[in-house]
Amino acid sequence: MNGSDSRSRLFNIEPEGMNTPYIESLTSYINRLANRHTVLVGTIVKKILTQELDKTYLKNIAIKGGDGFYKSSNAINGVGQMANDFVSVMERLTTRNDLENTTLLSLAEVFPTRGLSRNKKAWCPDCLEEMKLQGEIYEPLIWSIQAVKVCPRHKVNLIEQCPFCKTNPYFLDRSSNPGYCSKCLNWLGESNQNKLLEGEQVNQSLDTVILIRDLLNWVIRDEVILLKRENCISSLNWAVHNFFRGSTSAAANTLGFSNTTFRYWLNGINRPTINAILDICIILGLSMEEFFLKRGKMTELFYGRENNIVKMNKKQLNYQEIGGFLSLIINNGYNISIKEIAQIVGCDRKLLSKVFPEQCQAIISHNKEHIANKKNSRFLDISGKIEQTFFSLIQENQYPSYRKIEAIMGERVLQEKEIRNRYIELKKVIDEFNNLLT
Ligand SMILES: [Zn+2]
Ligand SMILES: [Zn+2]
Q1: Quick check: 326 and 356 in contact, CB under 8 A?
Q2: Are residues 365 and 263 in the same domain?
Q3: 344 found inside a domain
Q4: What is the distance in A from the centroid of ligand 1 to the CA of 153?
Q5: 14: CA distance to ligand 1 center in Å?
Q6: Is the residue at 379 inside a domain?
Q7: Does 258 lie in the same domain as 338?
Q8: Which long-range CB contacts under 8 A does 327-335 form with residues at least 24 apart?
Q9: Nearest ligand (C-alpha, residue 143)
Q10: Where among 302, 334, 356 does a domain terminate?
Q11: In the chain, at which end, N or C, are there fewer CB atoms within 10 A of the end residue's CB?
Q12: Are residues 388 and 417 in the same domain?
């Protein structure tokens, strides 16, 4: 099929970024379609509205006139009735059948509208500039999701305000164009308005964006038969079971929600927002796909061994077992010092280096690299303290649980992602060691 299809009353053009998480949004598609017909968006919109005028809400908007329709044009990319109606009328007019993916409709059942889509357009100037060079300028759907604050490719904040006229352009406007301000008509792709983000700020926002990008990728790839309301409920229950030994209050506490809120979600009385699910996935180290398919590693991440004080030195490993343990550390790329390993296996550090010179050398150089990569002195400082606490607990034959570390070092000390990752890594080494003992 192509633009000359006789039944099609609008050209049948393909959305940009098809089958990728950067698929074009429906408003951008309507915009480009207007361009292709060399008419203003206003003209196309009139055509769409006349096709759909039996819809009361559209009639009301049309009767009111003015900016009403354009102001609410964000909803065209969203999860509600408006997105539904626009998909079906645009499919009819273009004779396409794949425009649903240019909206967030595939997420409609699983996430409430609240916190999902943006009211005003947002864009990455660097992406726009690149598209201009490549020839086709469009606005990806991912930019219409509220939680997407940064561009994962350029690591800059998305912009919502036109730098020239200081207005926040709508998704659609009478004379809008992808990549241009619909009020002052200036090109929005000028770079250097936006400085590169650094450190923790970008990491947190990037983690979120990457989760969303991968969610869209999955949803588009598998055409979402799975994302039903029940999936979310059963995934939450699964998470409580697998990460928190079935304790709802432990899960609610660790994940940072009130018990009541959390119970309502588990029972399906309320639906968690996309932001809540994002937070949960980040803390549990899951992708959204893993969360919804219940495929995360079934480790009892935080509360597993709370009451089980492991006697770290109850048994000495023999040399062969220690050698196996060292290989395991090397093969997994764990960042742990020889001194710490010596503490875990209960063996003198010098002896360790003497008996296993090659393996110790490999571990030392791996560590040097790791430290060089973590130039951030604040991170080194905090993680150093975590390590100290971690190993002093082991020396006291206590299992260095999440809760104990926080009890000693202060609540929330493990909430920062990098620090928590460091803790999780140390904990993995301990768990591997415990497996050898049993
Ligand atoms: Zn970008
Ligand atoms: Zn402007």
Answers
A1: yes
A2: no
A3: yes
A4: 5
A5: 22
A6: yes
A7: no
A8: 327/359, 328/432, 329/363, 329/429, 329/432, 330/359, 330/362, 330/363, 330/366, 332/428, 332/432, 333/366, 334/425, 334/428, 334/429, 335/366, 335/367, 335/370, 335/422, 335/425
A9: 1
A10: 302
A11: C
A12: yes
Domain limit, last residue, from 245, 271, 302: 302
Q: Which two tokens stand for residue 379?
A: 């991170």
Ligand with smallest separation from the Cα of 182:
2
Q: Cβ contacts of residue 75 below 8 Å, gap of 6+?
A: 82, 83, 117
| Ligand 2 centroid to residue 360 C-alpha, Å | 61
What separation in Å is there between the alpha carbon of 167 and the centre of ligand 2? 6
The answer on 273 and 359 residing in a single domain is no
78: pLDDT confidence band, cut at 50, 70 and 90? Answer: very high
Assess whether pLDDT exceeds 90 at residue 213. yes
Distance 103 CA to ligand 2 centre (A): 25
Q: Could you tell me the residue range of the domain that residue 288 belongs to?
A: 228-302
pTM score, whole prediction:
0.67
Give the ligand with the smallest distance to the CA of 173: 2
For every residue of 337-371, DSSP letters joined together read: -HHHHHHHHT--HHHHHHHSHHHHHHHHHHHHHHH
In a domain, 331, yes or no: yes
What would the mean pLDDT of 226-247 be, rounded to a whole number? Answer: 86
